[in-house]
Amino acid sequence: MKVTIIGAGYVGLVTSACLADIGNDVVCLDIDVNKIEFLNAGGVPIYEPGLQALLLANRQAGRLRFTSEADLAIAHGDLVFIATSTPEGEDGHADLKNVLAAAQSIGARMTGFTVVVTKSTVPVGTAEKVHVLLDDALHARGFATAHAGREEKGQPTFSVVSNPEFLKEGAAVADFMRPDRIVIGTTPDAAGVRALALMRQLYAPFNRHHERTLCMDLRSAEFTKYAANAMLATRISLMNELANLADKVGVDIERVRQGIGADPRIGFGFLYAGTGYGGSCFPKDVQALIRTADDCGQTLKVLQAVQETNHAQKSILLEKIEAYFGSELQGRTFAMWGLAFKPNTDDMREAPSRVLIRALIERGVRVQLHDPVAMEQAQQVLALDLADIADGAQRVSFYPQALNALNGADALVIMTEWTAYRSPDFAAIKQGLRHPIIFDGRNVYDPEVVGEAGLQYEGVGRRCALVHDKKELNI
Ligand SMILES: NC(=O)c1ccc[n+]([C@@H]2O[C@H](COP(=O)([O-])OP(=O)(O)OC[C@H]3O[C@@H](n4cnc5c(N)ncnc54)[C@H](O)[C@@H]3O)[C@@H](O)[C@H]2O)c1
User: Fold this and answer.
1) Which CATH number is 336's domain given?
2) Which residues are catalytically annotated?
3) pLDDT of 43-80, one tens digit each?
4) What is the distance between the alpha carbons of residues 393 and 475, in angstroms, rounded to a whole number?
5) How far apart are CA 419 and CA 396, in angstroms?
6) What's the average model confidence in pLDDT over 158-183?
7) Which long-range CB contacts under 8 A does 227-232 form with residues at least 24 apart?
8) Same domain, yes or no, for 339 and 387?
């Protein structure tokens, strides 16, 4: 099928590569001319396992093209996906300007029958806004307003479909190729029925094992995406609150995680305590859902608490560092392993590491950083994050080798659970540090193993594993 994807970001690139890989003829459009040039020169602007090989193979096979020419791209696709960013707006609502600009661009150029698919995460009612924009654009081109389902000779017609994306960064290609579910929201009119048939045809190769498609109305599809992220964010914040309590009452949250995860009603996924969630989705999507509810006169109390807990959790390691070293940290140096908001990505958007780095720099500390893939991105975002702190950026250094980042550091801080950090040479860590302590923000290590190596250990919700005299606890 002929498919156009608007937006060559994490979602747009993965969607383009995967749809091309199953045999579709895909054109991917982005307004960022440099990004398109880079892609056309064989570069891959993001790190995502498996993506580079897919892009290369499908470009070589002639099934995938990149362009910044809207005319070419919109003329190409019978299905046109909008996968542009929807960042948090100033008032906390999702900022729809990129989605609406893409819709306008489609409306100004579409011919024949076009299925316009919103893949970006967008608030309830956005597909209807896109429909109005497309209608207006056709009107401006001198066509009669295209009522859904009506097709006259030479009259472009369209149907707007909501097809939210559930892929996880770090496993995006695998998630897209083997989705848990494919949510498709359509209108109940004739154009919607036609659009649904095309969407089913497009996704049929992903349904060979069993049917994964869930068909629903537009608004329910849009809401499903927010509800999913709200649920996942809630699990993380609840687990973090329990972990903080575990620290106070002498409980190992890792044991508890396994104890509750074994219950099939709960399950093991998304139950890790740590330094809070980040990334380009949960923070803005939780906030946008809260704003949607505000608009309807409803307060989402649970989600407000989720957000508050997450905000506080990003400082949990700072509290532990100050508890150990005292609040006067000036002149100290900390090594940090892991900068990306989670493993297997270079995405630094809302990464908890940024909050801790800034807090440490504000306190006069030096930081020595390592990440297997996110150092380039980190360099860019930290330059901006620390721009208002005199000599802030000078107190940040990057190390290509994780162990080298330890040299002369007072302590090691773990912020991302990359597999490369899972089984380190603890003796070398001890040798490199001035104080033998690891602050493990992702509970990667077994406190006993770390202890046996002569290192002290501070995880999140794991004090019981270390405190043998229970009088030290607050109970
Ligand atoms: N990143 C994820 O893990 C993920 C997962 C599921 C859903 N989503 C949602 O998907 C959407 C895209 O997210 P992302 O992370 O891929 O964003 P991104 O910032 O990585 O990429 C967005 C791309 O869109 C381009 N763009 C913006 N306006 C444009 C326009 N008018 N025409 C053409 N290109 C335009 C930008 O230049 C950029 O390359 C968001 O709504 C996000 O919430 C993201």
Assistant:
1) 3.40.50.720
2) 281
3) 999 999 999 999 999 999 999 999 999 999 999 999 99
4) 43
5) 24
6) 97
7) 227/289, 228/166, 229/121, 229/281, 229/282, 229/285, 229/286, 229/289, 230/285, 230/286, 230/289, 230/300, 230/303, 230/306, 232/270, 232/282
8) yes
Other C-beta atoms lying within 10 Å of the C-beta of residue 151:
16
Structural domain span for residue 209: 2-215
The whole-number pLDDT of residue 145 equals 64
Cα dihedral 251, 257, 263, 265 in deg (nearest 10):
120
Buried b (16+ CB within 10 A) or exposed e, 13-33: bbbbbbbbbeebbbbbbbbee
Are both 281 and 186 inside the same structural domain? no
Indicate if ligand 1 lies below 6 Å from the C-beta of 31: yes
Burial class from Cβ neighbours inside 10 Å (0-12, 13-18, 19+) for residue 168 reads: middle
Determine whether the shortest distance from the Cβ of 98 to ligand 1 is under 6 A.
Answer: yes
- Side chain identity at residue 125, one-letter code: G
| 226 in a structural domain | no
Average pLDDT estimate for 371-375: 98
460: closest CA among 429, 437, 430, 439? 439
Distance 142 CA to ligand 1 centre (A): 31
CA of 285 to the centre of ligand 1 (A): 14
Residue of the CA atom closest to atom 5 of ligand 1: 167
**Among 67, 165, 229, 277, residue to substitute to test ligand 1 (most atoms within 8 Å of Cβ):** 165
Query: Closest ligand 1 atom, CA of 284?
Result: 43
pLDDT at 472: 58
- pTM, 2 dp: 0.94
Q: Please report whether residue 12 resides in a domain.
A: yes
Comparing CA positions, the residue from 322, 350, 363 lying closest to residue 458 is 322
| Residue 320 vs residues 100, 105, 124, 273, 399: alpha-carbon distances, Å | 45, 51, 41, 15, 24
- Residue to probe by mutation, ligand 1, list 31, 85, 287, most atoms within 8 Å of CB: 85
Report, as an integer, the average pLDDT of 120-142. Answer: 97
167 and 279 assigned to the same domain = no
| Cβ–ligand 1 contact at 11 (below 6 Å) | yes
pLDDT digits (tens, 9 = 90+) for 17-28: 999 999 999 999
Look at ligand 1, atom 3, and give the residue with the nearest C-alpha: 169
The alpha carbon of 11 and the centre of ligand 1 are apart by a number of angstroms equal to 6
> For ligand 1, is residue 309 a contact (CB within 6 Å)?
no
Claim to verify: residue 207 and residue 236 sit in the same structural domain: no
Largest CA distance in the chain: 83
Closest atom of ligand 1 to CA, residue 8 = 39
* Ligand 1 proximity of 39 Cβ (cutoff 6 Å): no
The yes-or-no verdict on residue 469 having pLDDT over 90 is no
381 and 354 Cβ atoms separated by less than 8 Å: yes
Q: Is 78 in the pocket of ligand 1 (CB under 6 A)?
A: no
